[in-house]
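Morning F.,

Quick status update on the modeling queue. The single chain you submitted on Monday has been processed. Sequence for confirmation:
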Amino acid sequence: MKSERIPLVTCQSGGSFHRRRRMLSGAAILATLSGGICVAQSVPESPAPSTAAPPADKVQRVILSASPFAGQDDLQATQPSAIVGREALTRDRAASLGDTLATQPGVQSTAFGPGASRPIIRGLDGPRIKTAENGVGSLDVASISPDHAVSSEVLGARQIEILRGPATLLYGSGAIGGLVNVVTDRIPQAHSDGTRLLADLRGSTAERARDVGAQLRSSAGPLAFTGEFSDRRSDDYATARAGRLANSDTAARNGSIGTSWIFDNGYVGIGGNRFESEYGIPSSDRPRIDLARNRIEVNGEFSGIAGLERLGWLQPVTTIATPRLRPAVMLAPCSATTATACALINAARRLSNRRWS
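Structure tokens below.
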């Protein structure tokens, strides 16, 4: 915008005037007012304020990044993705490990009969899912044969850990689908508050299940003791239309005992377990599986030795699992004329298919 000069009249009395150093570009207007001399001059007009908005400052690009394992070390980053505590196990405990964990997100059960149900994680099962007990493999044939049960009892479990993703590499390269670790108190790691006895009794009408279990914990001086026992039996399942599902009965027993010597900076203990299970597979040939497992473990942990924060180990001394497949005694066909005698014969044959009456 061009600046224009506007005439301005200044007056000075006394018959004299002062000529400014700065010459005016416009014509001077002389006038005589009241005996004085007035000189006209022009001054530049101040420019009008601009209405345009000032340029905005350029904002630098900001990149935000976060990691769920930023504040964790390598060991903490491989922690279990889900932990089923003692209260949840007491509420959801079933006849098998798969049925117990079937209510967890992302976990299903194989449902290969009531006595042989393994967990399925994200659609993977079999050898892709590893089962362990206290961090050591269960050492049974359930991973290669779907009709064999997992030789781990849920009654004595303190918690069950479910691992997914890269955390399973800590337990071998084969468990690409996940790992289920049953953590027990078979070998006590701390003293109990006196002597504690926990009992559990439950039943079901659909399969006429009878389930009883007990746990005992006690301490005497530097020694701590623990023991548990469970007995579970069920008859054939009752269906809505076809009556009882033949050869779906189960029977299982579990017993364990352990002791530890607990001192100021650690403990050393030993424990043993005996697991027995006999069940049928609902199929046309009606096979039955007789499973027995003996397991002895030595466990210990020390802290503050040779500059180490913690040093621990768990060694299964011996683990023997002997599954045995035997065909069931076939039931005789019954007719209307010999219904009573045939029913007695079939009842005796059913008893011969069971280990415990």
